[in-house]
Each structure stands twice: as C-alpha cells, then as structure tokens.
Amino acid sequence: xxxxxxxxxxxxxxxxxxxxxxxxxxxxxxxxxxxxxxxxxxxxxxx
Length: 47
What we know:
Layout: H1 2-8, H2 13-46
C-alpha cells in the first residue's frame, strides 16, 4: 500500500516524507469522520 502512495505522491527528502505522512493521516481521519457522521445521519433519517 505504501508503494502505491509513493507512486501517487512522489517525495524528495525528509520533508516530503513528513508531508506524505500528514496527507495519509488526514485521509484516514477524514474517512473516520465521514463514517461516523454518515452512520449518525443514516440512523437519524431511518429512525
């Protein structure tokens, strides 16, 4: 999986690696937030 991300986000040096890690964590947190919000919204609308 990390190889695929490296292809999508080519990095140079240590600073690029930190930027890549930040984008990856932002993506994971965004998925979790949207998942929780989506479940809450679904329960609210269907209940």
